[in-house]
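Issue 218. Parser rejects a valid record. Input:
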Amino acid sequence: MKSIVRHFTLRSWLFIALNAVCVFVQVFLELKIPDYITEITTLVQVEGSSMGEILLTGSKMLLCALLTLVLAIIIHVICAKIAADYSFLVRAKLYDKVESFSLEQMNHFSTPSLITRSTNDITQVQNIISFGTLALIKAPIMSTYAIIKISGKEWQWTLTTAIAVGVVFLVLMICYVFALPKFKRIQTLTDNINRITRENLTGLRVIRAYNAEDYQKNKFEKANTDITKNNLSAQRILSIMGPSLMFVMNGLAIVIYLLGAYIINSTEGAEGKLAVFSDMIVFSQYAMHVIISFMVLNMIFIMAPRAVVASKRINEVIDYKTNIFDGDFSGETEVTGEIEFRNVSFRYPDAADYVLKNISFKAKKGETVAIIGSTGCGKTTLINLIPRFYDCTEGEVLVDSVNVKDYKLDILHSKLGYVPQKAVLFSGTVNSNVAFGTNLRDEYTEDDVKRAVRIAQAEDFVEKMPQEYDSDITQGGTNVSGGQRQRLCIARAICKNPEILIFDDSFSALDYKTDRVLRSALKEETEGTTNIIVAQRIGTIKDADLIIVLSDGEIAGMGKHKELLNSCQVYKEIALSQLSREEMSI
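Output the parser choked on:
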């Protein structure tokens, strides 16, 4: 439970203390009721007792019951508040932690697993806090108080109750030991079924195009069968507890009455028999409270294994050491819009070979630097070092003459406009998506959005949409085409007015005419902005101020288009595969 309570705040502990006080009063009142039952039993059997005395005692018992009800409502409200506060705090911690992860760390946990931990796992822990903060306080108080009340009675009854408690403990321990491994596996299987479901939803068109419905269905059924079997196995173990505890409770009641009958028979005198009978009634009530306390703990034992596993999975994310740390630099720089790579090399953790080796180049303010090369040569990895999605293994990456590791991340990112290889749109409107990247998101103007959309050549289709700039965009932008998504992503980067624009193969879904017009508009209307372009098309980059040719993670050539045609064999081969010799002007 330590993994759960570590996230409790001072406010949570104050609520728990208040809850303990309320529970103590509730238990006192609840266990006062058997005393009144004894008193009424005695009054009914003693000659000369008046109806008024019986009604007065009954009224006191009723008042105790009503106060117990009121306190129960208060206690449950407090428990719900503690659980809600916990889930709010932990979910916020998880979100902040995941936001700070590098791409490498995201891959370590996987997206389906992080989603499960942020939703299902937190819900598991929230449920046990809501119920457990009551049970774990009430059960010990009630059982202790009840044991004190019966401790002075007949030793036979006390011994019988002790044996019953021992049996209950044994059953609970056996179930807990065998159920815990099952619940650990359930969480992993939940990750797996989430992953398969997510793949089926995101890859629906590919699945249908390849007639792979049955194949995917079999994958899902296997994952579903695994988690179902594991759940059934765990529940079979836990199903032993309920009947066992009921058997113990009912068996204890029978034994108490059998022993009571024997003791009453062996007691002389009517008054003595009456006293033993009253003690038996009270003892049976208190003994039932002791067993009920352990039955309440039974529910904790049913929920605890899964909650403990869930809390450890949550803490695994929260405690995971971030490898991208905020720097201290947040001041003004003497130069702007400048990027420099100094002898940069990079390899992924645990990888044997470097992805990038000894990369050095400089992009000055207002220049367009293009990066080209074969698939897998490290183009995307290279530009991912600029916004610190990864940190270089060796060398330095500088933005405005300052090492990117020295920047506060929000300051560094405010200088950059990034368009990823895969166009990403969020549920909302055209306006909210294009203005998503502005430094002052709430202070953008309609003209800012329209200008960015116009430069990105998205004006023609946006203004044909039903509500133009207020038209809805679904999650992932599934209600617009691939080229339209790409242009809106480019508009989002432009709207931010950054010093540096980074395009990671962001023109691939555009036709040649739109590509040319867009690049021309960028050059004219974002003068002074440095452009870093990763592309596969020679036509997209041939007018760049500097073209960097990558091959196997190394620079194979660097210069302008015509220079590289004469000096770089790799570039020439790429150009020949796309352009005729006349188009290359050679």
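Fixed in the parser; the record now loads. Residues 51-100 form the longest helix (50 residues).
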